[in-house]
Amino acid sequence: MTILKAHFDGKVIVPDEPVDLPMGRVLEVRVEPIEPPQQPKTTLQKLAEVAREFPAEGLPPDAAAQHDHYLYGTPKAD
Fold first, then answer.
1. DSSP 3-state percent helix, strand, coil across the chain (nearest 5)
2. pLDDT (tens digit, 0 to 9) for every residue of the chain, 78 residues total?
3. pLDDT on residue 12
4. Are 16 and 5 in contact (CB under 8 A)?
5. Cα-atom radius of gyration of the chain, to the nearest Å?
6. Measured in Å, how far apart are the chain's first and last C-alpha atoms?
7. Exposure string (b/e) for 35-48, b if CB count within 10 Å is 16 or more?
8. 27, 37 in Cβ contact below 8 A?
């Protein structure tokens, strides 16, 4: 038995790589869809996942604008 990866172009099944099959022979083909490989996560996606772990409740409403004040104790900016 030979297993090959292929795709359907809307009309025919096209092998994704060269195949070594006998010419002129009748073949039985079984089709089983496979899941495409997942793309690796980007740095931004990883950062978003980490950020979701930190609760936002209890933070002051101006925390982003005044982060130096809350982190380092500098005077609040106007």
1. 20, 10, 70
2. 888 999 999 999 999 999 998 999 999 999 999 888 888 999 999 999 998 888 878 888 888 898 899 889 999 987
3. 94
4. yes
5. 28
6. 74
7. eeeeeeeeeeeeee
8. no
